[in-house]
Amino acid sequence: MMKKPQLLQNFSAFGLGCLLLGTLSGSALADPGKDSDSESSEPLLRPIKVVSTSGNVTNADALVEDHEGYATLTMVQGSPAPQIILDYGRDVGGLPFFDVTAVTGTPRLEAIYSEAQQWLFPTGDGSYPDGAEVNVSYVGNCGAASLSRVNTYSPSGPGLIISRLIQGGERFQALTLTTPGSVTLRRVGVRPTFVSPPTAGVGYFRSSDPALNEIWNLGASTLELNRVPARSLPPSWTSTSQGVDVKGSTFSVYQAGTAWSNYTASFDAQVVTNETGWMVYGDPIGGFRFVLAADNDTVGPPNTLRLTHPFVPGTLAQVPLPFDLKPGTWHRVRIIAGTTLQTYVDDELVMSLPIPGAGSFGFAGYDDTEGLFRNLLVSDASGNTLLQSTLTDSSILDAFTANTNSESALIDGAKRDRFVWSGDLAVSAPTLYYTSGASDAVAGSLRLHGSYQRSSGQVPGNLPPQLRPGLASGDAMPSTYYYSLSYSIYFVTTLYEYYLYTGDKDLVRWAWPVVQKDLAYVHNTTNAQHLVVTDASNDSDWHPHDQSKLTGTVTEFNALYYHSLRDAAQLAEAIGHEDVGAGYEAEAALVKNAINATLFDATTGLYDISDQLRGPVAQDANAMAVLFGVAHRDQRAAILQRLAAALDTANGPLAFSPGSTILSQIISPFISSFDAWARFENGDAVGALALIRTVWGHMRQGSPYYSGGVWEALAPDGSPATRESAGGTFASLAHGWASGPTSALSKYVLGVRPVQPGYRTWLIEPQTGDLTWAEGTVPTPYGPIAVRWQKTPQGLRLEINVPNGTSGSVGLPTSSSADSVADNGQLMQKGEKMTASSASGDTAGARPGYAYLANLGPGMHVIQVTGGDK
After folding, report:
1. Rounded Cα–Cα distance for residues 446 and 501 (Å)
2. Residue 675 pLDDT > 70, yes or no?
3. Which residues of 372-399 are buried (b: 16+ CB within 10 A; e: fewer)?
4. Model confidence at 40, in pLDDT bands (50, 70, 90)?
5. Is the pTM value of this prediction over 0.90?
6. What CATH superfamily classification does 751-866 receive?
7. Three-state DSSP class for 458?
8. CATH fold of 19-191, please?
9. Buried b (16+ CB within 10 A) or exposed e, 303-319
């Protein structure tokens, strides 16, 4: 994940003083729906129980699913505010929904959201306070989400209130009134932005261990919260005939303007409700936000212009307007962004601040606000037009990433950051292949990233899902998207795995030029030993708060590079570029030799973090070296044993040496996924399952932080990572990059994987570990593969049902020559279908202790192993 940006250091130079306004309620001003039919047939996720009530509340249980009646919150001046805390049982996501049946007085209804009850107050699990609220994310207004975890509504009578912006992942919701009056509610809930259609081919997994079954489901549920089908996200802004309508807690900037400096922006602005705003020196992360307040503003000081920043609490500057600003009136605004920031309203200078800088221009708002903007003109110091629009055409929303998403995608977290991160796909994409099978979300993510490759060859590490491919060149896009060499590499490895599971050669052909340029970019960073060398411009990784420690020849980055070269060779062969593929294979061999020669410590028997950081042990470097085949075959088991000895705690392996003052002290489900995969690949199913039970066991029901999803990171005590160790944010409790056990249990315990792309041929090679039985299905382009195995007194019994148009091999854990194997009652003899080789016929690729039935056709096979390993 990205780190919080460096904040400007010259705020104190303003000499203006900062007025701390206090945090008000957050994002997503709701629009009461035009449809007043509260019996809407659209799906609605409702709370399952009332946690508590306080103050003047009646019949709160009416808001729980399967209950009827009316709940009323009443506030009297001078009395405690009424409050209802609701529990949805697990993370849900979508548009908050309120069915209001009666209102008295002028109450303001406030809804607070959090994934964990411990984080619910006072402002939900937001992360960064600015002038008027607490932002959820540090990467901008992403995924059409409300930036705040506090929504405020001003109901005036009966009707439906449906938020315009998404609350992406929340289990708990607190309802209260902040001004006197009463509100009666018949229903509250969350309307999903999309509902997965029922599909017969969706995967599942069950086994003799209920803990593993639950963990598999946690990952599958997380992916559905993080999958965004094309055009499923609501636009953050609305294009109207009057101009762009900006409501609620949202900001976004013109994407191709983040290198601008010394420019003038002019536009017409109208405050519709309370106040409205715009951003200067902006990028997707934030910028300076000007807020223009009407004379009846209830969110901030009325009839003022104030300056805030998304990552700085309080107000940086505030001045009164020299006139009375009535809501519903148009005013001409001009911003001169040069050595100073000058703001003119109706040709009168209102604010001038000594803030030089560079960055784009955009629009912004706080909760319970609405503004209209039209006739935008941005020009440089020479008068050349940089951007001009009437702001009445909906296409302008794409330029600001404020429209719906044109591509299906996988975002990182349901709550935050709701961006498409290339590194996260290394874990979340395999989860999707074994659960919903909705591979279009991976294809869309790849198309999005590939379309914004820079001329240097670097592929962006993160992008908002609303960004439309081809909007501008990669070189024109914000530099905040291009921060990591390792995340650029993941584009290649994710593309290859996508091709392996889907057989989609068309996407490979489209992406092939991107692959070649990407690998050329990485190659240009290598030294004479063919090892990647990182510096401060590209060393950020999955733990960005340690970014400055990852310069030089980093083992993890080089293991990824080796892996990507080998994957690229396979892609080259698939589309007829065998000569290019051979070159990649040759380069990979050089990289592998150099890693082992310079980064493996024969004394410790482990790989060093880098040539500049030797001694501390890193889970990522060693797990990836084993998983990707960098480590010599005869050393892999010992490396994994030493790794566990160096890092294991009662709550799971630390990502880096315990007690290290150099690198973060966290338990990473992301990297532990690679660790578990490496153990399975090396035949240590018992060790892999133990790792899964330990790390992901903290996330199961009964945990005080249970969300029904998998968590972004853990503290050493097994609770979600602290804000200090997560870059200042609350940990995400539904994070796709933590879902590795889901694919692992299907791929290794059920044993199902593709051999030829798209499952034209397959391998079923179950690793039984300490389990007595397992069953499940795996979706494929040809239809589901169903597997059930069970240890019986006679031996292993395996039942499989495979789809038409496919064939494959079954690997059986039996090595004794006295064992017998029968397929559908027919005894198999060596020399018939039974071999000692892998599915590809390669004896070197066979798993030790396994024999293989080759060339099995579609349909049902009941295979009984008698004797041997039971």
Report:
1. 15
2. yes
3. bbbbbebeeeeeeebbebebeeeebbbb
4. low
5. yes
6. Maltose phosphorylase, domain 3 (2.60.420.10)
7. coil
8. Jelly Rolls (2.60.120)
9. bbbbbbbbbbbbbbbbe
